[in-house]
Amino acid sequence: MKLLFFDDFTFGALKGDDKVVDLSAEVADLPQLGPQDVIRGVIENWGTYRGKLEAAVETADGVPVSSVRLRPPLPKSTNIDCMAVNYMEDGTRDAPAQINSFYKTPFAIIGDGDDMILPDVPSTIFEGEAELALVISKYGSNVAEADAMDYIFGYTCFIDGSARGLPEGGFPTMKSRYTFAPIGPVLVTKDEIDDPQKLQVTLSNNGDVKQNFNTDDMAHLIPRCVEWVTSIHPVEAGDIIATGTNHGGLNPFQDGEVITLEIEKIGKLTINITDDLKRTWARETRHDMAAKGQDGTTPQLTGKYS
Questions:
Q1: Confidence of residue 45 (pLDDT cuts 50, 70, 90)
Q2: CA-to-CA distance for 263 and 184, rounded, in angstroms?
Q3: Which of the listed residues 5, 207, 266, 267 has the most CB atoms within 10 Å of its CB?
Q4: Which one, of 112, 110, 116, lies nearest residue 128 by Cα?
Q5: Same domain, 297 and 274
Q6: Do residues 95 and 66 share a domain?
Q7: Contact (CB, 8 A) for 179 and 50
Q8: Please, which pLDDT band fits residue 138 given cuts at 50, 70 and 90?
């Protein structure tokens, strides 16, 4: 199933490619303190809810997805762990980087159609990384790699926003900022994905493809990512592990741009970029810079801090 929230965080599912079905009646017995409680309850009790949710979707007409506002399918996950440097970069790396991860605040989460807001900080560049995200199915601590897939409920699209080059603070100031974790548009249950290590990932900026890679290029595979994160801290139902990106196509995010992340069999997540300072960069990727014999990211052209 493709689970979602819409409008005022009404719980539902996608039917086909273009209809949304309201499933709020089917989960009315769950705690309703907030939408995260609802999706966590569905995940934790999937054996109980799956049949009646599937039956409701089958019999309902639904409404056009274009007539509703999609919201983040996991509005406030307790833990958002992101794998760092976790791709072989199309063979340009001789060996996997040492496994590593960082943490994002739940307040970074936004959904389809929302704005990623670039803050007034002296970042050398703002970027967003196209990533496949894992959604945890149940409580787990020190999960063995061999058991890891039992702890995955499903998958969603994830954009890892970055404010690079800040003079202090490391990963928290670069990564864990408000609106810097767009997810969605749906949460796809794992039975819909035959092999999560063979999914094409494409990110476009104003319609121009910038990132285009396959999850088979991942350095530390999905079970190892789960093992690693749960060796650091426990996870629970509805938590997110973002699996990293191929960095070559990273490009500046700037005011007025429309970013679209599409992952095969999962869906298409679209966000807008808002920068009150109207800073600009050349429309170049890291691949473009490398082709010119230059390392790093494109320099800022205009605006504050340039």
A1: very high
A2: 10
A3: 5
A4: 116
A5: yes
A6: no
A7: no
A8: very high
Q: Is the pLDDT of residue 6 over 90?
A: yes
How many Cβ atoms are within 10 Å of 144's Cβ, its own excluded? 13
Looking at this protein, which amino acid is placed at residue 246? N
Same domain, 49 and 182: no
- The rounded distance, in Å, linking the Cα atoms of 137 and 74 is 13
Claim to verify: residue 255 and residue 182 sit in the same structural domain = yes
Indicate the angle between helix axes 35-44 and 46-59, nearest 10 degrees: 110
d(CA 135, CA 112): 17
Q: What is the mean pLDDT of residues 164-172?
A: 92
Tell which residue, 146, 147, 127, 129, has the closest CA to residue 137.
Answer: 147
Per-residue model confidence (pLDDT) at position 71: 98
Domain boundary among 71, 98, 120: 71
Helix (H, G, I), strand (E, B) or coil at 102: strand
Residues 229 and 296 occupy one common structural domain: yes
pLDDT at 139: 98
Average pLDDT score, the chain: 97
The domain of 51 spans 2-71
What is the pLDDT averaged over residues 275-298?
Answer: 93
- The yes-or-no verdict on residue 32 having pLDDT over 90 is no
On whether both 103 and 41 belong to a single domain, the answer is no
**Which residue do the tokens 């762990």 mark?**
81
pLDDT at 295: 84
Taking alpha carbons only, the member of 241, 225, 244 closest to residue 103 is 241
Q: Are 155 and 188 in contact (CB under 8 A)?
A: yes
Residues 61 and 132 placed together within one structural domain of the fold: no
CB distance 80 to 108 below 8 Å: yes
Residues 131 and 239 in one domain: yes
Distance CA 40, CA 75 (A): 10
Nearest alpha-carbon partner for 202 in 259, 139, 285, 160: 259
Confidence category of residue 31, pLDDT binned at 50, 70, 90: confident
Q: What is the CATH number of the domain that holds 228?
A: 3.90.850.10
- Only one residue has tokens 């670039």, namely 118
